[in-house]
Amino acid sequence: MITKRVRSGPAGEVKQPVKQPKRGDLVAEAIKRLITEKDLRPGDRLPQEAELQQLYSVSKGTIREALKSLEVQGLIKVTTGPGGGGMVVEVPLDRTLQLLQNYLFFKDVSIDDIYQVRQSLEPELAAGAVPHLSEDDFAALEANIECCDGASGPDDHNHLVRQRQEDMTFHDILAEANPNPFLRFICELINEMIRQLIEFRNDTPIADHRRFGATNSKIHRQILQAARERDVERVRALMVEHMTEAPKHVKRMKGKLRGRLILDSEIRKRTRAIVATVEKDV
Q: For the HTH gntR-type domain, which residue ranges apply (predicted)?
Protein backbone atom coordinates (compact mmCIF):
# COMPACT_ATOMS: atom_id res chain seq x y z
CA MET A 1 0.00 0.00 0.00
CA ILE A 2 1.40 3.38 -0.99
CA THR A 3 1.76 6.00 1.74
CA LYS A 4 3.31 9.42 1.82
CA ARG A 5 4.29 11.82 4.57
CA VAL A 6 3.40 15.49 4.34
CA ARG A 7 5.29 18.21 6.25
CA SER A 8 3.59 21.48 7.09
CA GLY A 9 4.00 24.40 9.50
CA PRO A 10 7.10 26.25 10.63
CA ALA A 11 8.09 23.51 13.05
CA GLY A 12 8.07 20.93 10.29
CA GLU A 13 5.21 19.01 11.91
CA VAL A 14 4.72 15.59 10.33
CA LYS A 15 1.12 14.68 9.56
CA GLN A 16 -0.17 11.13 9.72
CA PRO A 17 0.57 8.99 6.63
CA VAL A 18 -2.10 9.23 3.96
CA LYS A 19 -3.12 5.78 2.78
CA GLN A 20 -3.78 5.45 -0.91
CA PRO A 21 -6.66 3.12 -1.88
CA LYS A 22 -5.63 -0.08 -3.60
CA ARG A 23 -6.42 -0.23 -7.29
CA GLY A 24 -8.70 -3.22 -6.76
CA ASP A 25 -10.76 -1.22 -4.24
CA LEU A 26 -11.05 1.68 -6.67
CA VAL A 27 -12.26 -0.65 -9.42
CA ALA A 28 -14.77 -2.26 -7.02
CA GLU A 29 -16.17 1.22 -6.32
CA ALA A 30 -16.33 1.92 -10.05
CA ILE A 31 -18.27 -1.32 -10.64
CA LYS A 32 -20.70 -0.30 -7.89
CA ARG A 33 -21.30 2.96 -9.75
CA LEU A 34 -21.80 0.95 -12.94
CA ILE A 35 -24.44 -1.21 -11.23
CA THR A 36 -26.20 1.93 -9.98
CA GLU A 37 -26.02 3.88 -13.23
CA LYS A 38 -27.25 0.96 -15.35
CA ASP A 39 -29.91 0.09 -12.74
CA LEU A 40 -28.81 -3.55 -12.75
CA ARG A 41 -31.06 -5.90 -10.80
CA PRO A 42 -30.48 -9.33 -9.20
CA GLY A 43 -29.84 -11.79 -12.03
CA ASP A 44 -28.32 -9.20 -14.36
CA ARG A 45 -24.76 -9.92 -15.48
CA LEU A 46 -21.78 -7.62 -15.34
CA PRO A 47 -19.60 -7.12 -18.43
CA GLN A 48 -17.08 -9.90 -19.01
CA GLU A 49 -13.63 -9.64 -17.39
CA ALA A 50 -11.96 -8.61 -20.63
CA GLU A 51 -14.50 -5.84 -21.15
CA LEU A 52 -14.01 -4.63 -17.57
CA GLN A 53 -10.24 -4.66 -18.07
CA GLN A 54 -10.59 -2.46 -21.12
CA LEU A 55 -13.18 -0.24 -19.47
CA TYR A 56 -11.01 0.53 -16.43
CA SER A 57 -7.53 0.04 -18.02
CA VAL A 58 -6.35 -2.44 -15.39
CA SER A 59 -4.97 -5.98 -15.31
CA LYS A 60 -6.97 -9.19 -15.09
CA GLY A 61 -5.67 -9.66 -11.54
CA THR A 62 -7.03 -6.28 -10.48
CA ILE A 63 -10.44 -7.04 -12.00
CA ARG A 64 -10.58 -10.37 -10.19
CA GLU A 65 -9.59 -8.71 -6.92
CA ALA A 66 -12.39 -6.17 -7.37
CA LEU A 67 -14.95 -8.84 -8.21
CA LYS A 68 -13.90 -10.91 -5.20
CA SER A 69 -14.35 -7.87 -2.96
CA LEU A 70 -17.88 -7.31 -4.28
CA GLU A 71 -18.66 -11.01 -3.85
CA VAL A 72 -17.55 -10.91 -0.22
CA GLN A 73 -19.86 -7.95 0.30
CA GLY A 74 -22.72 -10.07 -1.05
CA LEU A 75 -23.41 -7.79 -4.03
CA ILE A 76 -22.45 -10.21 -6.81
CA LYS A 77 -21.83 -13.89 -7.46
CA VAL A 78 -18.82 -14.86 -9.54
CA THR A 79 -18.78 -17.97 -11.72
CA THR A 80 -15.91 -19.44 -13.72
CA GLY A 81 -15.65 -21.14 -17.09
CA PRO A 82 -17.20 -20.23 -20.44
CA GLY A 83 -19.86 -17.60 -19.97
CA GLY A 84 -18.71 -17.00 -16.39
CA GLY A 85 -18.21 -13.69 -14.70
CA GLY A 86 -20.05 -11.51 -12.23
CA MET A 87 -23.81 -11.55 -11.70
CA VAL A 88 -25.70 -9.11 -9.48
CA VAL A 89 -27.43 -10.78 -6.54
CA GLU A 90 -29.64 -9.62 -3.70
CA VAL A 91 -27.59 -9.13 -0.54
CA PRO A 92 -28.52 -12.03 1.79
CA LEU A 93 -30.17 -11.21 5.09
CA ASP A 94 -27.55 -13.28 6.89
CA ARG A 95 -24.79 -11.06 5.53
CA THR A 96 -26.68 -7.96 6.67
CA LEU A 97 -27.15 -9.52 10.10
CA GLN A 98 -23.44 -10.27 10.29
CA LEU A 99 -22.55 -6.63 9.64
CA LEU A 100 -25.16 -5.43 12.11
CA GLN A 101 -23.98 -7.82 14.80
CA ASN A 102 -20.38 -6.76 14.24
CA TYR A 103 -21.57 -3.25 15.06
CA LEU A 104 -23.78 -4.29 17.99
CA PHE A 105 -20.95 -6.41 19.44
CA PHE A 106 -19.55 -3.22 20.93
CA LYS A 107 -22.93 -1.99 22.18
CA ASP A 108 -24.88 -2.95 25.29
CA VAL A 109 -28.00 -4.34 23.57
CA SER A 110 -30.38 -6.42 25.68
CA ILE A 111 -33.31 -8.70 24.94
CA ASP A 112 -35.58 -5.98 26.38
CA ASP A 113 -34.19 -3.52 23.81
CA ILE A 114 -35.00 -5.90 20.96
CA TYR A 115 -38.52 -6.65 22.15
CA GLN A 116 -39.25 -2.98 22.74
CA VAL A 117 -38.67 -2.44 19.03
CA ARG A 118 -40.69 -5.54 18.15
CA GLN A 119 -43.62 -4.28 20.25
CA SER A 120 -43.71 -1.19 18.04
CA LEU A 121 -43.18 -2.81 14.66
CA GLU A 122 -44.65 -6.34 14.68
CA PRO A 123 -48.30 -5.31 15.23
CA GLU A 124 -48.13 -2.93 12.26
CA LEU A 125 -46.30 -5.49 10.15
CA ALA A 126 -48.92 -8.17 10.82
CA ALA A 127 -51.85 -5.80 10.34
CA GLY A 128 -50.42 -4.58 7.04
CA ALA A 129 -49.93 -8.15 5.83
CA VAL A 130 -53.53 -9.27 6.41
CA PRO A 131 -55.06 -8.03 3.11
CA HIS A 132 -52.23 -9.63 1.13
CA LEU A 133 -52.11 -13.12 2.66
CA SER A 134 -52.88 -15.90 0.19
CA GLU A 135 -54.18 -19.42 0.77
CA ASP A 136 -50.61 -20.65 0.39
CA ASP A 137 -49.57 -18.24 3.14
CA PHE A 138 -52.34 -19.50 5.41
CA ALA A 139 -51.24 -23.08 4.76
CA ALA A 140 -47.62 -22.17 5.56
CA LEU A 141 -48.67 -20.45 8.79
CA GLU A 142 -50.72 -23.49 9.79
CA ALA A 143 -47.82 -25.85 9.03
CA ASN A 144 -45.47 -23.71 11.10
CA ILE A 145 -47.81 -23.81 14.09
CA GLU A 146 -48.03 -27.61 13.87
CA CYS A 147 -44.25 -27.84 13.60
CA CYS A 148 -43.68 -25.68 16.69
CA ASP A 149 -46.47 -26.93 18.94
CA GLY A 150 -44.97 -27.04 22.42
CA ALA A 151 -46.63 -30.37 23.13
CA SER A 152 -44.94 -32.20 20.22
CA GLY A 153 -41.55 -33.86 19.93
CA PRO A 154 -39.10 -35.39 22.39
CA ASP A 155 -38.08 -33.92 25.73
CA ASP A 156 -34.78 -32.84 24.27
CA HIS A 157 -33.29 -29.40 24.98
CA ASN A 158 -31.84 -28.94 21.48
CA HIS A 159 -35.08 -29.96 19.79
CA LEU A 160 -37.09 -27.54 21.91
CA VAL A 161 -34.65 -24.70 21.23
CA ARG A 162 -34.97 -25.37 17.49
CA GLN A 163 -38.73 -25.17 17.86
CA ARG A 164 -38.40 -21.76 19.51
CA GLN A 165 -36.10 -20.64 16.71
CA GLU A 166 -38.57 -21.88 14.12
CA ASP A 167 -41.37 -19.93 15.83
CA MET A 168 -39.79 -16.93 14.11
CA THR A 169 -40.76 -18.33 10.71
CA PHE A 170 -44.41 -17.56 11.54
CA HIS A 171 -43.41 -13.91 11.71
CA ASP A 172 -41.28 -14.20 8.55
CA ILE A 173 -44.31 -15.44 6.60
CA LEU A 174 -46.30 -12.42 7.74
CA ALA A 175 -43.39 -10.16 6.87
CA GLU A 176 -43.14 -11.54 3.34
CA ALA A 177 -46.79 -10.64 2.75
CA ASN A 178 -46.42 -7.04 3.91
CA PRO A 179 -46.05 -4.62 0.97
CA ASN A 180 -43.76 -2.20 2.85
CA PRO A 181 -40.23 -3.35 1.90
CA PHE A 182 -38.44 -1.35 4.61
CA LEU A 183 -40.73 -2.50 7.42
CA ARG A 184 -40.43 -6.04 6.09
CA PHE A 185 -36.64 -5.84 6.08
CA ILE A 186 -36.35 -4.47 9.62
CA CYS A 187 -38.70 -7.11 11.04
CA GLU A 188 -37.02 -9.98 9.19
CA LEU A 189 -33.66 -8.75 10.44
CA ILE A 190 -34.89 -8.71 14.03
CA ASN A 191 -36.38 -12.18 13.57
CA GLU A 192 -33.04 -13.47 12.36
CA MET A 193 -31.25 -11.86 15.31
CA ILE A 194 -33.57 -13.66 17.72
CA ARG A 195 -33.21 -16.92 15.80
CA GLN A 196 -29.42 -16.87 15.76
CA LEU A 197 -28.37 -14.91 18.82
CA ILE A 198 -30.75 -15.71 21.70
CA GLU A 199 -29.68 -18.80 23.62
CA PHE A 200 -31.08 -20.69 26.60
CA ARG A 201 -29.18 -22.52 29.30
CA ASN A 202 -29.02 -26.31 29.02
CA ASP A 203 -30.53 -26.63 32.49
CA THR A 204 -33.66 -24.67 31.55
CA PRO A 205 -36.58 -26.88 32.68
CA ILE A 206 -38.29 -28.75 29.86
CA ALA A 207 -41.62 -27.65 31.29
CA ASP A 208 -40.68 -24.00 30.70
CA HIS A 209 -39.80 -24.72 27.07
CA ARG A 210 -43.10 -26.51 26.53
CA ARG A 211 -45.05 -23.75 28.29
CA PHE A 212 -43.44 -21.15 26.02
CA GLY A 213 -44.13 -23.27 22.95
CA ALA A 214 -47.76 -23.81 23.93
CA THR A 215 -48.24 -20.08 24.54
CA ASN A 216 -46.74 -19.24 21.15
CA SER A 217 -48.87 -21.85 19.38
CA LYS A 218 -52.05 -20.57 21.03
CA ILE A 219 -51.49 -16.93 20.13
CA HIS A 220 -50.27 -17.85 16.64
CA ARG A 221 -53.50 -19.80 16.05
CA GLN A 222 -55.55 -16.83 17.19
CA ILE A 223 -53.60 -14.52 14.88
CA LEU A 224 -54.06 -16.96 12.00
CA GLN A 225 -57.81 -17.19 12.59
CA ALA A 226 -58.17 -13.41 12.72
CA ALA A 227 -56.08 -13.09 9.57
CA ARG A 228 -58.29 -15.62 7.75
CA GLU A 229 -61.26 -13.45 8.72
CA ARG A 230 -59.35 -10.40 7.40
CA ASP A 231 -59.82 -8.75 10.78
CA VAL A 232 -56.94 -6.27 10.70
CA GLU A 233 -57.60 -4.69 14.09
CA ARG A 234 -57.90 -8.06 15.80
CA VAL A 235 -54.58 -9.17 14.31
CA ARG A 236 -52.94 -5.95 15.47
CA ALA A 237 -54.30 -6.35 19.04
CA LEU A 238 -53.26 -10.01 19.25
CA MET A 239 -49.75 -9.18 18.07
CA VAL A 240 -49.44 -6.47 20.73
CA GLU A 241 -50.38 -9.09 23.33
CA HIS A 242 -47.92 -11.58 21.82
CA MET A 243 -45.03 -9.12 21.80
CA THR A 244 -45.77 -8.18 25.41
CA GLU A 245 -45.83 -11.76 26.71
CA ALA A 246 -42.98 -13.31 24.69
CA PRO A 247 -40.08 -11.48 26.42
CA LYS A 248 -41.48 -12.52 29.81
CA HIS A 249 -41.07 -16.16 28.82
CA VAL A 250 -37.59 -15.56 27.43
CA LYS A 251 -36.44 -13.92 30.67
CA ARG A 252 -38.14 -16.56 32.83
CA MET A 253 -36.13 -19.17 30.91
CA LYS A 254 -32.97 -17.07 31.45
CA GLY A 255 -32.54 -16.51 27.74
CA LYS A 256 -29.71 -14.18 26.83
CA LEU A 257 -28.35 -12.43 23.78
CA ARG A 258 -24.99 -13.85 22.76
CA GLY A 259 -22.46 -11.02 22.51
CA ARG A 260 -20.27 -12.43 19.76
CA LEU A 261 -19.11 -11.85 16.23
CA ILE A 262 -20.77 -13.93 13.53
CA LEU A 263 -18.22 -15.83 11.46
CA ASP A 264 -18.36 -16.13 7.68
CA SER A 265 -18.52 -19.90 8.10
CA GLU A 266 -21.77 -19.50 10.06
CA ILE A 267 -23.59 -17.52 7.40
CA ARG A 268 -26.19 -19.80 5.93
CA LYS A 269 -28.69 -19.61 3.12
CA ARG A 270 -32.26 -19.04 4.23
CA THR A 271 -33.53 -22.44 3.13
CA ARG A 272 -35.62 -23.22 6.19
CA ALA A 273 -33.13 -25.91 7.20
CA ILE A 274 -34.41 -25.69 10.75
CA VAL A 275 -37.87 -26.85 9.63
CA ALA A 276 -36.44 -30.04 8.15
CA THR A 277 -34.47 -30.74 11.31
CA VAL A 278 -37.44 -30.17 13.59
CA GLU A 279 -39.73 -32.33 11.45
CA LYS A 280 -37.13 -35.08 11.52
CA ASP A 281 -37.08 -34.97 15.32
CA VAL A 282 -40.85 -35.05 15.68
A: 21-91
What integer is the mean pLDDT of 44-72? Answer: 93
* Contact predicate 150/211, CB 8 Å: yes
Q: Quick one: CA dihedral 7, 9, 13, 19, positive or negative?
A: negative
Q: How many domains does the chain contain in total?
A: 2
* First-last CA distance in the chain: 56
Q: What is the mean pLDDT of the chain?
A: 84
Q: What is the CATH number of the domain that holds 73?
A: 1.10.10.10
Q: Domain of residue 207: give its range.
A: 93-281
What mean pLDDT comes out for the span 59-74? 92
Question: C-alpha angle with apex 235: 138 to 132, nearest 5 degrees?
Answer: 45
Does residue 108 share a domain with residue 72? no
**Together in a domain, 103 and 82:** no
DSSP-assigned states of every residue in 30-91: HHHHHHHHTT--TTPBPPPHHHHHHHHT--HHHHHHHHHHHHHTTSEEEE-STT-EEEE-PP
